[in-house]
Amino acid sequence: MADVPLLLYGLIAVALAFDFLNGLHDAANSIATIVSTRVLRPQYAVFWAAFFNFVAFLFFGLHVAQTVGSGIISPQIVDDKVIFGALMGAISWNVLTWLLGIPSSSSHALVGGLVGAGVAKTGTSAIVWSGLIKTGSAIVLSPALGFLLALLLVLAVSWIFVRSTPSAVDNLFRSLQFISASLYSLGHGGNDAQKTMGVIAVLLYSHGVYGGEFHVPFWVVLTCQAAMGLGTLFGGWRIVHTMGSKITRLTPMQGFCAETGGAITLFLATALGVPVSTTHTITGAIVGVGAARRVSAVRWNVAKDIVIAWIVTMPMSAFIAAAFYSGASFFG
Predict the structure, then answer these.
(1) Is residue 1 part of a domain?
(2) How many domains is the chain built from?
(3) pTM (two decimals)
(4) For the chain, which has fewer Cβ within 10 Å, the N-terminal or C-terminal residue?
């Protein structure tokens, strides 16, 4: 690393800034349910989530980092301008949606940014279609699986505790929610931080660092997990409000089922190397527990607005990334 250009350090810093914003933006995913059920106060919940976001690297491999680094666009076409455009496209979209309180996907903003900057450089030949199709499919599959698992969990738990008093169930699941929130934060850190690891790894690869071999150094793993954890500490209260109370009202039992269903989905996706959206996943799970109570318990107009944000995230971040790449090429 001693002989690499100063620009590389700057781009790594921008990538870590994206990772920080990812934690900031997605803090709501980890804590919305446990805050909305009043099991933990927000200031304590963010510390809880940040810790499990950070230690996630101890439990997962680096399959998602490999997918993002080499399975979305071809590593051979990556240069500083492509990475700059991709990161700025993702960061710009993240900041805009965070300010508006829209729970969009940081993951798909980054994927869209990579595609937009790559296409701006070499056209559609830059795209690794198998990886992009796998990631695009997850836009539908991850919230659907989160919805289904959370729905089944809440139905099963309701049947198991049908003879228990509401207060006894509430007290039990207030304790169990600490476990489910931890698992979800673990899944969040395991999947989301790896996306920035992949970006930094392919950036190092493009500069021929470490012999020009694509791999993720351990220092990259640690710094990305730390940036994600720090971002989570600063929270995203606008999105917490949307996720935790606008979609549907949650009890501790429902919060447990939503977090557990979401966590299982994230664990599966991370093991398969699929960069899914933690935002999509927990939203699907929250809708699932609300629909289990009754269909009218879900505020479908809010859910509709969130889905629209999902649809436009990749093309909008791609467009912004392409503009940043073109601007960097013009001035560079």
Answers:
(1) no
(2) 1
(3) 0.83
(4) C
